[in-house]
Design goal:
Length: 254
C-alpha cells in the first residue's frame, strides 16, 4: 500500500482515477455554413408563351405548398389546347378508336403543358374552356427568387420563381487534410448556433468532396440536417464538433 499525507496531496495537486476500458474518441472542432439542399430546389417556368393576369404569390420569402396556385396565365396556345381537348371529348365514341386516340392525345398535350390532372378533370366536367389557368407550385417550399410581375409577358422556359424546401438543409464545413481519416460517410454530426447556444442539431455526414484546397489545405465536407421549425437558415454560420471513434475498446487514462 502507498500512503500519502492529505496535506501533501493538496499541495502537489495530486488527482487519482481508475484506468477503464471503453471507446476512444476524437473531436474535431470546425465551423460551417448552412446552404440550400440542392436536391430540394425547383424552378417554376411555363412551356408556352403567355401573359400573367394575376399573381397569387407576389413576394419572396413566402411559404407555398405543393399544388397551391402561384399565378394565373393566359396563353393562346393553352386556350387552343383546351378547345381541342373539348372537341375530342365531344367526338369520343366507344365504336370509334380514332376518336378515343384523339382524346388521349389532346389530354396528354395538356398534361405536357404541366396542367394538373385535377384541372383537366374540371375542364371535362364544365366543358367550358377557361381563358386563364392557374400554374401550381411543384413542391413545398419558400420563394427564394421571383422575377415575374402582374401583366408581364412570359416566354416558354423563362424562370419565374425559384422554390426551396428548407425541411432539410445542407451544412458545408472545411476539414484539414490530416483530419480527413476521422470523417466517414454516415457519421453523426452536431451543429450549434450562436443564437441558440443551449440547443444542438444532429445530422449526418453525407459527402466528402474529392479535392483539397491548395491554399488552406482543407477539404469540403457536406452534412445534412432535418430542419423542423426552420431554425437553420441558409447563410448562417455554425460551429461543428465532429466526434469520431478511433477504437471501440481501449484502455482510457484521463
Amino acid at each position: 500500500a502507498i500512503a500519502i499525507d492529505p496535506v501533501t496531496i493538496q499541495n502537489m495537486n495530486i488527482r487519482t482515477a481508475l484506468v477503464v476500458r471503453g471507446p476512444l474518441r476524437r473531436t474535431i472542432h470546425t465551423v460551417g455554413s448552412i446552404d440550400y439542399n440542392e436536391t430540394a430546389l425547383a424552378d417554376v417556368t411555363t412551356k408556352f408563351k403567355g401573359w400573367v393576369e394575376k399573381l397569387y404569390v407576389d413576394a419572396t420569402g413566402q411559404l407555398v405548398h405543393r399544388g397551391e396556385p402561384l399565378f394565373a396565365v393566359y396563353s393562346p396556345e393553352l386556350y387552343s389546347s383546351e378547345v381541342e381537348y373539348l372537341l375530342a371529348l365531344n367526338q369520343t365514341s366507344s365504336v370509334d378508336p380514332g376518336a378515343a386516340a384523339l382524346r388521349d392525345t389532346s389530354e396528354k398535350k395538356l398534361a405536357f403543358y404541366d396542367i394538373s390532372a385535377a384541372q383537366i378533370v374540371e375542364l371535362e366536367k364544365t366543358r367550358v374552356p377557361r381563358k386563364t389557368l392557374d400554374i401550381l407550385a411543384p413542391i413545398d417550399g419558400f420563394v427564394t427568387e421571383k422575377t415575374v410581375v402582374e401583366g408581364q409577358m412570359v416566354d416558354a422556359g423563362m424562370k419565374l420563381y425559384r422554390l426551396a424546401d428548407l425541411g432539410i438543409v445542407w451544412v458545408f464545413a472545411q476539414i484539414y487534410e490530416q483530419d480527413l481519416p476521422c470523417v466517414q460517410l454516415g457519421q453523426e454530426a452536431v451543429v450549434r448556433l450562436d443564437s441558440m447556444p443551449d440547443r444542438e442539431f444532429r445530422g449526418r455526414v453525407t459527402y466528402v468532396y474529392p479535392t483539397v484546397d491548395d491554399k488552406t489545405r482543407t477539404a469540403r465536407v457536406r452534412m445534412e440536417f432535418e430542419n423542423p421549425g426552420y431554425f437553420l437558415k441558409p447563410g448562417m454560420f455554425v460551429s461543428v464538433p465532429l466526434v469520431s471513434e478511433l477504437d471501440p475498446s481501449a484502455l482510457l487514462v484521463p
